[in-house]
Specification:
The complex is a heterotrimer of chains A (about 240), B (about 240) and C (about 525). With about 240 residues, chain A is α+β, with helices and mostly antiparallel strands. Chain A is built from four helices and ten strands. Chain A has one domain: 2-Layer Sandwich (Ribosomal Protein S5, domain 2), CATH 3.30.230. In chain A, strand 3 and strand 4 form a beta hairpin. Chain B has three domains: about 60 residues, OB fold (Dihydrolipoamide Acetyltransferase, E2P); about 80 residues, Nucleic acid-binding proteins (OB fold (Dihydrolipoamide Acetyltransferase, E2P), Beta Barrel), CATH 2.40.50.140; about 80 residues, K Homology domain, type 1 (Ribosomal Protein S8, Chain: A, domain 1), CATH 3.30.1370.10. Chain B is about 20% helix and about 35% strand. By secondary structure, chain C is α+β, with helices and mostly antiparallel strands. The chains are: A alpha+beta (about 240), B alpha+beta (about 240), C alpha+beta (about 525). At the B-C interface, helix 3 and helix 4 of B face loops of C. Strand 2 of chain A pairs antiparallel with strand 20 of chain C, so a sheet runs across the interface.
């Protein structure tokens, strides 16, 4: 039997596909307190009620929303709508991490969507990973919000997610790339509401101090304002031109 | 405070709405909600719940115009439904909402228990919604309050059913839109327009029907001038052959 | 844009010439007339009975209109100017009932019978990621590789694995996770087209015979279903396979080294040829056919013919399903059409691959994010902007101060001493009163109140049970079911003094009294 010596490779669990990193990949001009370029295109899928393809830097997620639609009788709720989120990774079959992401997003959406307006109905949100270059979870949340706006689903308020990591030298980096995220000491993801920029949901891992956490919360709240401004600009661009 | 005619997003608070002179009340249409979270303050906020353009009609009506594809049943709307199930005394009709609507056998002109209406599964019906709220299944009828059909009923003999967004339907039904009249001046056609985003069209031939369908689809994002130019071009094309 | 047959009505009267003069756009420039068949540009054919009349008429009309440009007897090539071409088409449509029937149907989007919808191919940043749109149908493919043991039957060959994922995003009727028949059929056809045609050289994927080989996994995600998933998926899969790069491997004796990206450049898969599928939809028992059916057209089709072919005219797969009977020459005709379409699509793929390699090597931006057209109304972009730190610098300072004040040092309260009681049992602390910030006096009073209440309830229960026993006809045996309504008297005066928060007291004394009265009344009524 031969021995196989594996050198470093960029991989995701079992399968791997190589990413070609540009020489200018870690943009030296991009400071740590800067969100990457956000690009989005709405209404691209014709078969669903609302859809959006959102890119934060190179991380791209495609989201689609259908609702309110018929619900399976086992999931029927007499006073509110049922929210079903499906996350599809690009490679392989969905497993536990995907399921936990789905649960996270569905519980966040429950507070955002006015579920009491549509009892015994369901909202189905599907998120497809198109490209992952860090801050995947926050990109998913933002794409879902944009798709909900595109579908004109009744919402209580809008949501914006921000990822912040604590790098090895203690620096707080906003909206990290995959490389930066892999080398981080701590990872924090916050979801803010548009009403008063209060925290709706958060997910964090790693070791960090109380002060770092408080700092990240504030930095996150400030950057979420940028995301909300982006939503507003996008909707204005679409709606005002529609005669 | 967002102005009338500007884009509003969910979570935006609206203040300074005009009430009517007589009663002092303001009428809130689709897209606006009262958020009475602060019971102690007794301050009921008016919050936007759908993204769109804030509209106002004198004296006291406010609503949000949003772009939506999914239909939510509203009482009084005339809609086109597809009969899917025949069960007992009711038909179950698909109107595009999350639940099937029920249509009674007797809700047709001249229908009695002996004289059942000739409706098959897959038929199109043009009906009016009489019961629609979030807690009950919607109910539709094909007669008006007098018992006459007044244009409602089964749609027969061919034609084509087009699915479109709710905005398009509202747009082409509005007084300002010249599309339907212009098309009709050169191409005679029959049409039934359902507020649930379904339009039934029947032209003299397949080609004319397709032309009308394409003209309607293209007019969704066009201004009135563009619509007039487009219809003229289409007519030239068609008669040129 | 419109095929000739569209404007032929079912009537048999010839259409008046005059009505066709205005506003004609160019559709066809010339015919090739050979061997008694009139072929249009789109390979449609008309039976010979028409040919004589049509040509004569054409000559007449063309001379009258001044439009005839050429007439070659041998090849019988008739070249006419635009207006006349159209008349000729119309005419022979009209004259031939069979032609009429075949080509009378018009497509909803104005395409001709053999027209494909516009195809767009985009590549992502990671190698092997491809996004193809065919009209409104969108498919995303990602190719990845993994080292596994080879199949026992073929120890020196790599494995190509195809997986199709269809989610509710594609169309609302699909359920997540559940594999529908359609998805299974799609997977099988793609497997036949890609694997069994040996388009990818699997021998080169072997690392160590019988022990380790590369498994190439092709995940196909359907994003939007607007008809003809198979063609779109085959284009996307081939483009992704050609785009993919796998890590370089060196085998030295018993040791195998898989090099990383920095060490050695990844190497592409060896794709011998590009098999692509073309779908034909048939209607009316094989009489009418359409290439690249859209979703509405697919729903009403009766039969389907799929031909997988590469541009060297080699058929890789062929499948016919549905209720129809096809003649041999119909199938041959379809395969001729397939050759043309496959050649076009292959050229498109090659061009897209070239553009991508150029963009990558020249340092330009590539990937999906850069391929979104920002000028469109439905898209928007926000450049990376710096945040204003001043706005929250003060807040941070105040919060940091607060937290440092409140922070408790670990030496303060809990001395974490563990007392070992026995084997496997330990105890931290020894119990005692609660050390949380609670007013102990309040606690005791509240406990006393509760006990009082309990006592009173007991008394009332006893009274009730007596009442109930005497009124035996009521049949209420279970004392546990009795509901006792608390009156304000039960909330005796001392309670008001103790509780700090203003509690709203409910006056239920009267209720209990009236209840008792009613029960006694009923009892008396029964007796009487």
């Amino acid at each position: 039997m031969g021995r196989i010596k594996l050198l470093v490779f960029v991989g995701i669990i079992n399968s791997m596909y190589l990413k070609e990193f540009d020489i200018l990949e870690v943009n030296p001009e991009r400071s740590s307190q800067q969100m990457r370029t956000i690009t989005c295109e709405c209404g691209i899928l014709s078969r669903c009620d609302g859809s959006c393809c959102l890119c934060q830097g190179d991380t791209t997620i495609m989201a689609s929303v259908n609702g309110p639609v018929e619900v399976k009788s086992s999931k029927e709720c007499i006073d509110q709508a049922y929210i079903e989120v499906t996350y599809k990774p690009k490679v392989g079959l969905p497993g536990c991490p995907e399921k936990s992401l789905e649960n996270f997003i569905s519980s966040t959406c429950k507070s955002v969507i006015s579920v009491n307006l549509h009892p015994r109905a369901s909202f189905s949100i599907v998120l497809q990973e198109v490209e992952n270059d860090g801050s995947l979870m926050s990109c998913c949340v933002n794409a879902a919000c944009m798709a909900l706006l595109n579908a004109a689903v009744p919402l209580n308020y809008m949501m914006a997610a921000v990822t912040i990591i604590v790098s090895e030298d203690g620096e707080l980096v906003l909206d990290p790339t995959e490389k930066q995220q892999a080398a981080a000491v701590a990872y924090m993801m916050f979801v803010y509401s548009s009403k008063d920029f209060s925290l709706i949901a958060s997910s964090s891992s790693g070791q960090y101090s109380d002060e770092q956490f408080q700092r990240c919360l504030l930095i996150g709240a400030e950057s979420s304002k940028q995301v909300f401004k982006f939503y507003r600009d996008t909707m204005e661009k679409q709606l005002i031109s529609k005669v | 405070m967002p102005e009338v005619g500007s884009v509003v997003l969910p979570g935006d608070v609206i203040t300074d709405l005009k009430g009517s002179e007589s009663s002092g009340k303001t009428v809130l249409g689709p897209g606006l909600r009262i958020d009475s979270q602060n019971v102690q303050d007794e301050r009921n906020e008016i919050v936007v719940c759908k993204p769109g353009i804030l509209r106002h009609r004198d004296p006291n009506v406010y609503w949000v115009d949003s772009h939506q594809k999914r239909y939510i049943p509203t009482k009084g709307d005339s809609i086109i439904g597809i009969v899917t199930i025949k069960s007992g005394d009711n038909f179950r009709v698909d109107i595009g909402s999350n639940e099937l609507a029920s249509l009674s056998y007797l809700a047709f002109e001249g229908a009695t228990k002996r004289n059942r209406p000739d409706v098959k599964i897959g038929d199109l019906v043009y009906a009016r919604i009489v019961v629609a709220n979030k807690d009950m299944e919607p109910e539709i009828v094909c007669i008006d309050s007098m018992g006459r059909s007044s244009g409602l009923g089964v749609i027969r003999e061919g034609g084509f059913l087009l699915h479109c967004s709710l905005n398009l339907v509202r747009k082409i039904l509005s007084k300002e839109c010249p599309l339907l009249k212009l098309l009709g001046s050169t191409l005679p056609y029959e049409t039934a327009i359902g507020m649930n985003g379904r339009i039934w069209i029947k032209g003299r031939s397949t080609v004319e029907t397709i032309t009308i369908i394409n003209a309607i689809e293209k007019s969704e994002f066009s201004s009135n001038e563009q619509i007039k130019a487009m219809v003229r071009q289409t007519m030239d094309h068609l008669s040129g052959f | 844009m419109h095929s000739a047959g569209e404007f032929c009505q079912s009537s048999t009267e010839p259409l008046a010439l005059n009505s066709h003069r205005r506003g004609i756009t160019d559709i066809i420039k010339h015919f090739r007339v050979s061997k008694g068949w009139i072929n249009t540009r789109d390979c449609t054919t008309v039976p010979p009975c028409v040919w004589g009349d049509a040509v004569c008429f054409c000559r007449e009309v063309a001379t009258r209109e001044g439009g005839i440009l050429g007439w070659e007897a041998d090849e019988a090539r008739v070249t006419v100017s635009k207006p006349c071409a159209h008349i000729l088409l119309l005419l022979h449509c009209h004259l031939s009932p069979l032609y009429l029937e075949c080509h009378m149907k018009a497509r909803l989007d104005g395409r001709e019978i053999y027209d494909y919808r516009p195809i767009q191919i985009k590549f992502g940043i990671s190698q092997g990621c491809c996004h193809v749109t065919l009209g409104n149908t969108r498919i995303l493919v990602q190719v990845s590789c993994e080292v596994t043991a080879p199949k026992q039957a073929r120890p020196s060959e790599g494995i190509l694995f195809v997986n199709v994922e269809i989610s509710p995003m594609a169309a609302p009727q699909y359920e997540p996770g559940r594999l529908t028949e359609e998805a299974v059929e799609l997977t099988r056809l793609l497997e036949r087209c890609l694997k069994e045609s040996r388009c990818v050289d699997t021998e080169s994927l072997c690392i160590m015979t019988g022990i380790k080989v590369w498994q190439i996994r092709c995940d196909i995600h359907i994003l939007n279903h607007d008809g003809n998933l198979l063609d779109c998926a085959s284009v996307a899969a081939i483009a992704a396979l050609a785009h993919f790069r796998r890590p370089d491997v060196t085998v030295s004796g018993e040791e195998v080294t898989i090099h990383s990206l920095e060490d050695r450049d990844p190497i592409p898969l060896s794709v011998h040829h590009m098999p692509l599928c073309v779908t034909f939809a048939f209607y009316k028992q094989g009489k009418f056919l359409l290439v690249d059916p859209s979703e509405k057209e697919e729903r009403v089709m009766e039969g389907k013919l799929v031909i997988g072919m590469n541009k060297h005219r080699e058929v890789c797969t062929l499948q016919m399903t549905g209720s129809m009977l096809l003649l041999k020459d119909q199938v041959l005709r379809c395969s001729n059409i397939t050759v043309k379409k496959v050649t076009e699509m292959t050229n498109l793929i090659q061009k897209a691959l070239e553009n991508d390699t150029k963009a990558r090597s020249s340092g330009q931006k590539f990937g999906f994010a850069s391929s979104i057209e920002i000028s469109r109304l439905s898209s928007n972009q926000l450049e990376a902007t710096n945040m204003s730190k001043e706005s929250f610098e003060e807040k941070i300072q105040s919060i940091v101060q607060e937290s440092s004040d409140e922070s408790y040092t670990s030496d303060d309260n809990c001395k974490t001493e563990v007392h070992i009681l026995g084997r496997g049992t330990g105890v931290i602390g020894e119990g005692g009163p609660s050390t949380w910030d609670v007013d102990l006096d309040e606690d005791e009073e509240m406990i006393a109140e509760l006990e009082n209440e309990q006592g009173q309830k007991q008394n009332r229960r006893e009274i009730h049970s007596e009442v109930m026993k005497t009124a035996g006809s009521l049949g209420d045996e279970s004392e546990e079911e009795q509901t006792i309504t608390l009156q304000s008297e039960d909330f005796s005066g001392d309670r008001m003094e103790i509780s700090a928060e203003p509690r709203t007291t409910i006056d239920l004394t009267k209720a209990l009294k009236t209840e008792k009265k009613q029960k006694s009344l009923k009892k008396s009524k029964l007796k009487s």
